[in-house]
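for the record, two folds in this file. i put them one after another cuz i was lazy. first one right below, seq on top, structure tokens after. the second one comes after a little note so u can tell where it starts
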Amino acid sequence: MRSMLLIAVLLSSCATRTPEEPTGNRGTYEPPTSPSIVIENFQYAVIEKNTQNFMLCLADQSRSRYPYVFEPSAEAGARFQAVFASWSVTKEQQAFLSMIARLPTDQNLGLEFDNSNIAYASPDSTVWVSDYTLTAQLGIASLPTVLNGTMVLSITPEVSGLWSISRWSDAKRPTDTVESTWSLLKAQLSN
């Protein structure tokens, strides 16, 4: 009799509950099983101001065989040599967080890609090249609200088989007369 009472109590305490929605903003993110998904995730992470997803797009030595490298535009690299000499995935995160913090809460970031193409593809890497326009109304007097340039992303597989950006090279577009690249923004945000 006691054992039946104990079983009845245990069974009544094992009732299932209604699942809850996840907390926090996950944003738009798909497991990056291909380089093209990395690009989509990267764009959504910027537009949605999602630091966690932005960082998942970048190679991290805890997940990847390759270290993350950022190569600034030539002009920004020369002007802010000390800043970019020690650039790392951690500094990338700090710059992204700083950009979001400076953005008014009712403002969104814009990121558009034009003239995109795959310059090189193999089973262990893809090099993606695109002109970009980043719209960020940050209120930094020395920067325009619209930044333009050409990015070259080397996208490589991680140990898990997922892909991430291991190298990001930035450049002024040949048709631009004034330097207004993402590199300048990163340099300004790191000071």
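(here's the note) second protein begins now
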Amino acid sequence: MAVLAAAVILIHLLWIVLVLVGVIWTRGRPVWTAIHLACLVWGIVVEVGPWPCPLTMLEDYLEARGHEHMAGASFILHWVRALIYPNAPYWLVTTAGVTACAIILAIYAWRAWVWWGNKDPRA
């Protein structure tokens, strides 16, 4: 179970990285853009809403089943977990996450505005 818990923690980190920097990859890729926008909306809903993140719940479940605690975790997993769950006030983490998502949504809005502005109305 400890290996599965570690895998879920790494997947969680990769998900967060996708949400934060996916906008770089999506330019000119409409399918990836749609996927990334869905990830952004999900990120905002989980941060602001009352629902827990399913990855967090799965991590907790696997750690409880394997009787694995952070005291016995590897050095790398310790720091990965610290990145995912920073030791900061909840309101600060939520504000930072929602602000980052709002900036990314603004980038998408700007891209859409430029794209629609460059359309030939005669076409």
